[in-house]
Amino acid sequence: MGADVVDGVLAALADPTRRHLLDLLSEHGQATATTLAVGLPVSRQAVVKHLAVLDAAGLVDSTKVGREVRYSVRSAALDATARWMAALAAEWDRRLARIKRIAEAAERDSR
Amino acid sequence: MGADVVDGVLAALADPTRRHLLDLLSEHGQATATTLAVGLPVSRQAVVKHLAVLDAAGLVDSTKVGREVRYSVRSAALDATARWMAALAAEWDRRLARIKRIAEAAERDSR
DNA sequence: CAGTTGTGCAACTCTGGAGTTGCACAACAG
DNA sequence: CTGTTGTGCAACTCCAGAGTTGCACAACTG
After folding, report:
1. A-chain residues within 8 Å CB-CB of B4?
2. What transmembrane ranges does the database entry give (chains A, B) (predicted)?
């Protein structure tokens, strides 16, 4: 699994405004930067920049229709990151269990 | 599920140095800031700050032993965030499917 | 055609966070 | 007790990124 994908998604999700943006997008399915900016306490330009970040992370898709650009949510990258995270948590558990086993064995030997 | 927990975890994981730190910790199971700083291109103080962030996010646990502080990985918060993310991805899929259904119905009516 | 509206581009400000250094203090070893 | 070593605290520097404004340009509407 591409580590850079995970990297991009994590960096993108770190910002509250971008998470809110994704929330709005998933509600409406389709929206332009101008429309999205109305429901947010920031300017349209700020929204455009955030959408660019989300686009680079693969969390959002853009389509030009006439003079406007419609954005929509893409779940693939998020899903991949969720799987990566779950695998990481499992890996930690595995390592912790192994270390605990070794520690117990060492203690048993010392007695 | 606490949204602030997810928030903290995402913010914590956004930094590459912190992810590397977590990786090192899960390998050794136990480590002090001084020890960890050796394998990283940053000072001990920088490591201490990162560990403080990870601690606040619940990703790391600290224990005082004599004059040194030992850190260890905690998988609970990461696991919770992974579940949250998977649920979010599923939610997006659900909404997208619903919107697609509506769009197709509208198209069928217009014909 | 003229007027309106949505985007894109560029140049700025400004704050948060990553990193550093220096020093004081507590906990060891001899 | 004396010297050494690991942490903690505080005051800095520095820069990426979040946000802004202003303007030019393309795309619709009448």
Report:
1. none
2. none
Interface test with B, best of A85, A93, A102 (most B CBs within 10 A): A85
Task: State how far the Cα of A22 lies from the Cα of A40, in Å rounded to an integer.
Answer: 12
Q: What H or E segment, with its residue span, contains residue B62?
A: strand B60-65
Closest chain A residue to the Cα of B10, Cα to Cα: A14
Q: In which residue are the tokens 């998988």 written? A: B75
Crossing angle (nearest 10°) for helices A16-28 and B76-110: 30
**Residue span of the structural domain in which A41 resides:** 3-110
Q: pLDDT tens for residues A4-19?
A: 899 999 999 999 999 9
CATH at A26:
1.10.10.10
- E-assigned strand segments in A43-96: 60-65, 68-73
Distances (CA, A) of A50 to A44, A57, B25, B38, B62: 10, 11, 33, 36, 36
- Chain D nucleotides close to protein (CB under 7 A) are 5-10, 17-22, 26-28
Nearest nucleotide to A11, CA against C1' atoms? D17
- Locus of tokens 């086993």: A101
* pLDDT tens digits, one per residue of B42-92: 999 999 999 999 999 999 999 999 999 999 999 999 999 999 999 999 999
Cβ contact, residue pair A26, B93, below 8 Å:
no
Structure tokens at B77: 């918060």
> What is chain A's length?
111
